[in-house]
Structure formats: structure tokens, C-alpha cells
Amino acid sequence: MYLKSRLKVLLAERDMSQKDLAEQTGLTTRLISEIANNKVKMYPKDALEKIMITLDVKNLGDLLQRIDEETDN
Prior knowledge:
Distance between the termini: 13 Å
Low-confidence stretches: none
Largest sheet: 2 strands, antiparallel
Structural class: mainly alpha
Number of strands: 2
Strand order of the largest sheet: 1-2
Shape: globular
Mean pLDDT: 94
Radius of gyration: 12 Å
Strand content: 5-15%
Helix content: 40-55%
């Protein structure tokens, strides 16, 4: 099992770029990109909180999706 970011989907739904999100959250574009592209091993709690507030996401499950490795092809 692992977590997969849905950040790209959420940004597309809001017609927002990673750079826009970085500016609005105060996070680096590098961190936003790494989260969006599933390149992080550990998600910084404060970063997730800022992203959720900025994108008006109420449930962490809307931002991070649990993937069972056996079913992920």
C-alpha cells in the first residue's frame, strides 16, 4: 500500500497551475511539483494543510489516495 497524490487532478479542476498554488501557499514550486508527481517519500504535514486550505479540500482522502500495490497496474 502507498499514497498517491491527486494534486494534479485538483489543480486541473480548479484551472490552477503549480506555480499559482506555490504563490498562494508560500510553499516552493519544487515541493508542489514533487507532491504532484509523487516524488516525496514523506508528506510534510504543514504543506498538506496549506494545500488543503488553499484548494478548499475538506478531506485528506481527496488529496491523497491509498493505492494497494496488488491492484495498481
